[in-house]
Amino acid sequence: MKKIHSLTELKLNFNWGMIAFVLHRITGIALTVYLFLHIYTLSAVQEGAAAFNHSLDKWDNFVGHIFEYLLLLAVAFHLFNGLRVTFVDFLRFTRQQKRLLAWAIALTVVVAVISLTIFIPELTI
Amino acid sequence: MSMFRKSTAHVFGWFMQRISALFLVIGMLVHFWVLHYFIEKPITFEKVVARLTSPGWILFDSLLLLAVIYHGLNGIWNILVDYNPSGVLRKTYGWILFLIGLATFIWGMATLIPFTAPV
Question: How close is the nearest chain B Cα to the Cα of A120, in Å?
Answer without folding.
Answer: 15
